[in-house]
Amino acid sequence: MKTLSKTEQGFGHLAIQEKPVPSPGKNEVKIEVKYAGICGSDIHTYEGHYRVAVPVTLGHEFSGVVAEVGEEVTEFKPGDRVTSETTFYICGECRYCQSEDYNLCTLRKGLGTQQDGAFAKYLIARKDSVHLLPERVDFKSGAMTEPLACTYHAIAKTEINQGDLIVVIGPGPIGLLAAQVAKARGGKVIITGLTNDKIRLNKAKELGIDYAVNTQEENVKDLVNQLTDGYGADVVLECSGAVPGAKQGLDLLHKKGQYAQVGLFAKSEIPFDLEKVIQKEIRVVGSRSQNSADWEPSLALMNEGKVNAKALVTHEFSITQWNEAYQAIKSGEAIKVLLRP
Predict the structure, then answer these.
(1) Which family does the similarity line name (predicted)?
(2) Residues 232 and 205: beta-carbon distance below 8 Å
(3) What's the pLDDT tens digit per position in 19-53?
(4) Strand-strand pairing, 336-340 and 313-318
(5) DSSP single-letter state for residue 249
(6) CATH number of 151-286
(7) Are 87 and 127 in contact (CB under 8 A)?
(8) Domain limits of the chain?
(9) Which residues are CB-neighbours of 325 under 8 A, at least 6 positions away?
(10) Could you report the per-residue pLDDT of 141-165, keeping only the tens digit for each?
(11) Element of type H or E holding 205
């Protein structure tokens, strides 16, 4: 079968390869992939900023149909519509596994990073990571479950009360999903972007986000002050992974506000205004990926119509059209791109 795989570290080195069709082992499920989303981390991997266990088939956001089940799998059967967590292997013994924080297990292996992923016709997932798609969640929406679970994971680390002002920085797919989850939690939401984010900011308005602000044309701090009697925002969800976004987020918060870093930075070391964190007693939290507890609530949000993930899909390509997909993302033309095997 054809796969889209990272073959070497560094910029590029993404190639169509022929690999044998895999077979499920004990407690494993073979899934025929219908759609696989391109994540920001896939872009970082292609550009050489994010290291994976090469050679490996990329892709960790996907939906599909169970093609075959391995020994001792009774929860799923061929034909079931499913998605899967990215976790493929955990040690099961460390304190993080014992507390079900599988995303923090040091020995964890993830689909599309250390284990062959979804940019292929078939993949193998561990039974415990597979989830059935609810009735009203189609395959395109199902392929968005992983990024939605990542935003749910981040927002669960903050406290959002009815009427709180939430600022989401960065209107990419993660930001647009985070804004919808924050609204579902009862928040009043501002999402910010730049001039080249026009398509994404317009999409935010279509999705019913309260305020979509181009910070190169409008002063978002004035808006925040106007809405909070000058105090500042309750929660900032930084989803851009850009240094200016982080600086802006700390500035917009009120004293004792909450800052969650969701977006990945291109470099691990960045200038960060700790003086504001200290003087305003800001609570800063990081959020890595997602874990099992985030998936069923995320699927429920889509099934109940509280999050419209499918609306973010603007482009579809074959796995053989990586260059076209990459250009659509980098140009700002695309919001979310799905690949077909």
Answers:
(1) Belongs to the zinc-containing alcohol dehydrogenase family.
(2) no
(3) 999 999 999 999 999 999 999 899 999 999 889 99
(4) parallel
(5) H
(6) 3.40.50.720
(7) no
(8) 2-132+308-339, 151-286
(9) 38, 315, 317, 334, 337, 339
(10) 999 999 999 999 999 999 999 999 9
(11) helix 198-206
